[in-house]
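If it is no trouble, might I ask you for a protein's amino acid sequence along with its backbone structure tokens?
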Amino acid sequence: MSACDICGVLRGPLVNNGIYDEKRTAPFRFDVPSPDDVVSNGLHSSKLGLKANIFDSKSSRVSSSVVGKNEAVKVKSNSKRSDSSYDSTAKDKHTRMDEIIFSKNLGVDAPSGSRTTGDSSASMPKGRLDNMDQSSGAFNLKSSGKSSSFMPKERNNMVDDSSSSGNGHETHSLSDNLRDISLAAKSGHSNDTSHGRANLRAQYKPEKWMLPGKAEDSLTQLNLAIVGHVDSGKSTLSGRLLHLLGRISQKEMHKYEKESKFQGKGSFAYAWALDESAEERERGITMTVAVAYFDSKRYHVVVLDSPGHKDFVPNMITGATQADAAILLIDASIGSFEAGMDGTKGQTREHAQLIRSFGVDQIIVAVNKMDAVNYSKDRFDLIKSQLGTFLRSCGFKDSCVSWIPLSAVENINLVAAPSDVRLSWYQGPYLLEAIDSFQPPTRDFSKPLLMPICDVIKSTSQGQVSACGKLEAGAVRIGSKVLIMPSANIATVRSLERDSQACTIARAGDNVAINLHGIDGIDVMAGGVLCHPDFPVAVAKHLELKVLVLDGATPILIGSQLEFHIHHAKEVAKVARISSLLDSKTGKVTKKAPRCIVAKQSAVVEVILQEAVCVEEFSKCKALGRVFLRTLGRTVAVGIVTRIVEEQ
């Protein structure tokens, strides 16, 4: 500290030698954890990469100007800031500018384990910095608290700013959008970034190769989730279909039969075609979502065989969220159907609610094990009556629900019309015919690339990393540049695999494994998002949701700790605010600031996550805007993201 020669007031040191000195006290600080914090807190290195590359709004309250690619970057700190390191008395008497000149790489000490690029400014891609230098000699990053000072140019232009304007701690409900705009205008925080982001997306034009040709892809891909209560025969049905349609050879089937009989589980032979792990075979249950493929007359079907046990519902959410349509399998045995419909332990109800929340509106209710009830029409009608009422309450339309009695073990009504006289009372389609009757799903080929990462495959010996998932929008090909969020690193596509077969181009709707080049495996994680470099997704931890509390769920209070599921990510969340209760039919506000939410109520709530996730508002991207809240092993609420709340 030095004293003024005239008035004697203490003030911060001036740094005018053009070199950043770590021993001197800077007039502001970056909110970046030190290496000691990393050791004491045990933070994951992939999460640190985000914090090192993208500073939050609290640490970006400086106005900076990027002068040129090879020139120094000057950051000016105004002494009028009350949160700076200057003495408060000097604020009224002295108005001066302290200049801290950083080197080309900004000289910021990143935490250990975080990834840095040698010739880029704070993880900003070099090409992006060049473009900024060429387009404008001094691109000013305003310190409005809305975006990071060191994020890529496109990310600053497209940060979702539909949150509160930042004057005070006031938060707004969905009905206060107009007031948000006026408050933002008064406080100088406009919503131009949100509109600019929408405009940029609207102006996006896909290249020719991104759109499917008329001759290619004669079979439309259909992602089909098979869900239902535990032991209803999901894996057996999947294995039986694969065998009947030639995807499993007779030799392989003989091997499964021999191995299952050796372990005393002869009836599990077809299930073993999908339950490949030793633990799954030993316990006799599916634990993860198994993926298989077969072709029908109309579709190339991707089977998503989901676990039915209540302990593995999170795995079911992770895999089945990719579904375009679903088969809800019901065990027709006496007592088994009733167990699945039980409000506390049955998974039939929960799976049906989750499937509808995934956006699936086409469903086949396959009543399996009809041989156990001698193909009784009365039993089938009873199941149809009771379950049909529940499905209507979930939002399924009768015209979009098909009811099919079958037996997977006896191969009745699967790929051909039933010849058994005991099923002569049924005149509807068989299972494969019902699958072909599904309406084809719509694909967003013309939108920017977007793929939530479901799984990551790392090869330590070859130093390769592959991101797996379903392309929700856009297209990708070998050699394409992609942006990995939330680490904000750019990689190059080395190779592509679709349905375990090498390919050169993958488009929206395809399940692919993308082998990446030029990125560390620690920066690619399940729950992240692979997207277009010019259209990064938002990363946030404070969200506003519109939720529906499910039947039988415990009340949700302010401060409740919940499991937050969104696409393939899972985080711990705390309910920070319950804004209002909504009418379930009209959506209008019925009560403001309620104390709690109980079963069957809809509400607008705010949640704060323990760590930030990749997210978008549901109105902009459905795949990244659907959320599921769970606690104590049960799904208590489903909903959508209505607003990304800016951290204050």
